[in-house]
Amino acid sequence: MSTFIENVLRDSRYAMRSLRRAPAFTSVGILTLALGIGATTAVYSIVDAVLLRPLPFPHPERLVSLYERTERSPKASVSAPNMEDWRAQSRSFDGMATYRGGESTLLGLAEPMRAQVFAASRDFFRLLGAAPELGRVFLPEESREGGVPVAVVSHAFWKQHLGASRDLGSLHLQTWGMDYRVVGVMPPTFEYPEHAQVWIPIEPQNTGMGRASHNDDALALLVAGVTPAQAQVELSAIAARIQQQFPTGTDALAATVIPLRDDLVGPVQRYLQLLLGAVFFVLLVVCVNLSSASLARGADRAREMAIRTMLGAGRARLVRQLLTESVLLSVAGGAAGLFVTMALMRVLLSLSPHSLPRAAGVELNAGVLAFAIALSLLTGVITGILPALQVAGADLRAAIARGGMRGATADRRGARRALVAAEVALAVVLLVGSGLVIRSFRVILAQDPGFNSSGTLVVNIALPETKYETGTSIRSYFDAALSSLNTTPGITSAAFINIVPLARGGFGSRMEIADNSAGQEYTDYRIVSPNYFRNMQIPLVAGRELSEADDSTVAHVAVINQTLAKTMWPGVDPIGRRLRVLGMDDHRDIWMSIVGVVADVHSTSLTRATPPETFVPYRQRPERAGYASFVVRGLLSDAALANTVRERLRAVDASVPLHMETLNDIVDRSLADRRFIMIVLAAFGVVALLLAAIGIYGVLSYTVAQRTREIGVRIALGAPTDGVIELVLRDTMEPVALGALVGVFGALATTQLMKAFLYQVSTADPITFVAVIVLLFTTALTASMLPTWRATRIDPALALRSE
Description:
Elements: H1 2-20, H2 23-52, E1 63-69, H3 80-89, E2 93-106, E3 113-120, H4 124-127, E4 134-135, E5 150-153, H5 155-161, E6 172-175, E7 178-185, E8 198-201, E9 217-222, H6 228-245, E10 254-259, H7 260-300, H8 302-310, H9 315-351, H10 366-393, H11 396-401, H12 405-445, E11 456-462, H13 471-486, E12 491-497, E13 508-513, E14 521-528, H14 532-536, E15 540-543, E16 557-561, H15 562-568, E17 578-581, E18 592-598, E19 613-617, E20 627-634, H16 638-652, E21 658-662, H17 663-670, H18 672-706, H19 708-716, H20 721-750, H21 766-792, H22 796-801
Parallel strand pairs: 3-8, 5-7, 14-19, 16-18
Antiparallel strand pairs: 1-9, 1-10, 2-3, 2-9, 4-7, 5-8, 6-7, 11-20, 11-21, 12-20, 13-14, 13-17, 15-18, 16-19, 17-18
Helix pairs in contact: 1-9, 2-7, 2-9, 2-10, 3-6, 7-10, 7-12, 7-18, 9-10, 12-18, 12-20, 12-21, 13-16, 18-20, 18-21, 20-21
């Protein structure tokens, strides 16, 4: 064992001296490896935190998410009454819990604020194995109708907004229409749902909930040994019994049970896997590039290796020495790559969409460092194996007799050309993938969203439920706010809607159509002010818009979108038809007459079909407008308009927190996932293209240097300049053409995995493929210009004299 260690140390010392004697090769190699290993490690750190690391709960493998399956969705939220039946009748679980909530207004602090408030059921904290750091969680008597209102807060919220006071009895928060006494503080490690700040009991909020009211997110802890599939079968059987018992009261047909980790990371899993695959392609390009450079350096060292052989060094020793140099270089590159990793981690997280789950856990931890070390060692072996095999297979004694370096060159030329072809093929795959994503993104940007987003300020509000408990109080606030805004100099128009397009998922319910035998259909539910459509420049297709006269003293009316009109009344004028929307507010039994049809807008996504939508006037149905968004247009700059609007709305009620952004910002945010993928893939493609260009330049420069005598003889014999250029470029274009051909077939195969990321663009899009090939050949010709010019300037006399 000691002999082995001594040999390794001896080889390492010799490798360090050898690398120091070639500073240009060593510097470029370390920088190239730092880029490849650093980028791969940075992407892996995100994949590790989001996809690979187990959830920070006891028994994470037994935690599952529960959904109801309806005709409209396989993953509908759970209704409270159905959940109680599941809890009472199932035997596959050690516990079930529900929660719902989001951004709400909090009063009782120094300033009103918007916070992430969630109502949670009695088993919520126990299920997740979470004990409070200070105080307690909900008592059974508090988790029921009529229970004393109490709240539990996150550690960060307690420190930032409650002064870290340990006197919990003196701390009160007003939200969701009640005054809550703070009874517990959770530890810093607990934050579920992500970014939650306050938890309150859900059971007092469940009064009057129907079985078709899909409001709650649900999770459960499986009994040890029970699989999600077995639990799903049991819950689906219970759902079928509920359907038989309440044939008109519930729309849940079955249940869906998904492991909690898969449910949390499912929306981002595919694109993180895509980015990890892309960065591994970049690393392969780095390996090929460095292998090519090592081959060239190995040719220059053929004489050295021959002398060492003559002095008694065996083939195995020479191979081990070359591999040691390669691994040492790669480890140095990996160490430098840690700086690249840290920088890229910050860049990737800043570019990543806010919806990226578990992003707070992205760090350079021991696991990521172990990955970087293993990757460095593996990269060293990969980049060194081909040069080492060349030495093992070469006749070094004959090489020294034939003139050393020249005797080893011919054996390496084919390998280097093959490496160039491999480098080009990998670059083609990456460039086609990024090109397809860019093309797809351009198609999406060209989409007409159905509204005009330019010059529009969006003001998101959440009315405090303790002050605005009734529809009348909500209606009064909007009457005053709209009147103030629309009479302010510099503001051309102000309107509001409960959910602005592309901002977040909408909510809706089943609806009934009068004199329609088709039964109940689903519609998204939008509450708007009368001038909303004009403000957003949404065209009116038929009938009239809502007006100021549509208030609580007249018959209820609605405007619908074209999708709903075509779905329910194909080829028929819907004006005057009647409908009612179930489960949305206090007016579910009141029929509404359709008075207008407006053009479709992309309300949930620019890439999804527009859902059926029903728009109702806030003066008739204000109850669901507690969370809403003003849309304001003006003649002022964005900053001046925001200050003016803030001043006016604070004058109406200073206790209503305001969050301002432009409508363009909202549209951009809706594309965050695709923009992130596009930017990262494009960056990887550019890196691969540059590395391929460096590889082509290196191969051609080396080829010209090794063929100096041959080219000199040709020129001396009268070869024209065009003939020399053709000779040199053939050495470039043949491997480039072969690599491009292989790359095209590789891209056709790998891009099939990208269908989910493309929109109205084929995976075999000819424009993208042609553009990539043209770009690649242009890059190859550019990289060939200087070596080709040098070849034409060779002096025959000097070339022959040097021999």
